Amino acid sequence: MSNSIISLVTGVFCEPFSAADAIRRLTESGFADHEIDLLGVLSGRPPNLIWFLLDLGLPDEHAEYFNACLSEGAVLVMVQTPPSRTSKKRKIALEVLKQHGGILPPEPASAWRSRPS
Prior knowledge:
This protein has helices at 16-28, 50-55, 60-71, 88-99, 109-113, and strands at residues 7-13, 36-39, 75-81. By secondary structure, the chain is of the alpha+beta class.
């Protein structure tokens, strides 16, 4: 990973084959292998991954959500993108994950609390 600032686009997949299809499409769309990560447990009871997910810089709400999904057997696809919400690569990553059945994390409560009514 380079020293530049990145943002993670994340999606949960209930089906590992759907996650694999999304990863294949991401690489076809120009993402390098080192920009894409897959996290899941192949067999047995998964460990509590909350601290690992928090160390990645994910918001508390996302880390808790992903940890619960992983404990139920889901897999997590993480894509490194530029931090700008208007970044073309970020938009592509979001679109690909959604198109292949990825469930995007819920918006953190802190984001909706700060919105004007």
